[in-house]
Amino acid sequence: MRRTDRTIGLAWLGGLGLALHAVPAAAQYASGPNATVEVASDERRRGLSWSDGDPVLRGSVSVPVAQGLSLDGAATSLWGSDRHGGADAVIDLGPSYVHQLGGWRLSLDARYHLFPGADHQGYGEFGAGAGFLIGPASIDIGAQYAPRQSAIGGDNLYLSSAAAFAIPGTPLTASARVGHSSGSDRDPLASQRLRPGGDYWDYGAAIAWYRGRWSAELRYSDTDIDSRDARHAGSALIGKFGLTL
């Protein structure tokens, strides 16, 4: 791993460690940690399959440490992902902050993505979002930015918008989203990892079912990536089933 990437990774993990020391002092704000276990037919992010189209297992935990602030972690099986250098899993770590301002829900987050089983693949990114609730409907916009890192061949900016509607009298929620990925190509080969074929759009729709601690989702995902660059980036129907502990 290059020195700059090692420094970035240590900084993110060090910051997470310092924040974990704050948990006891901030316990008065915490409603308690929550965890989720999921199985899915594919791990697809921003229209790209991270698991080469294979089913995955995913576990996540969120620990509140102060009003609106939580520390989050997730681990997802990748089974030797070609997209991520043969990684067996991805581990996502970082803090999230949410603030309610009138009818707006504002959020900030940071994530470092670790890839066990692969070398020189870790990278970090920052995000911000805003959402507005109108009765049973919500509208959200967001941005995620990964600064220039050798693991992704430059920098990467992802802009997205989404809408969701809880169907009255049912445990169902319908949603739709669209996003756009762009960035620099300092290393054209490495940049293909997150942007095969260059800048692109992704879009999709989903129907989700919630009942107590259980949830299920059926989601359609697609991109406008040219077919010659679209390995594991074309249209897909993804099923997911989860349990909140």
UniProtKB/TrEMBL annotation:
The keyword Signal applies. The keyword Signal applies. Keywords: Signal. Residues 1-27 form the signal peptide. InterPro entries: CHP02001 (IPR010239). This is Outer membrane protein beta-barrel domain-containing protein. It comes from Sphingobium yanoikuyae ATCC 51230. The lineage of its organism: Bacteria, Pseudomonadati, Pseudomonadota, Alphaproteobacteria, Sphingomonadales.
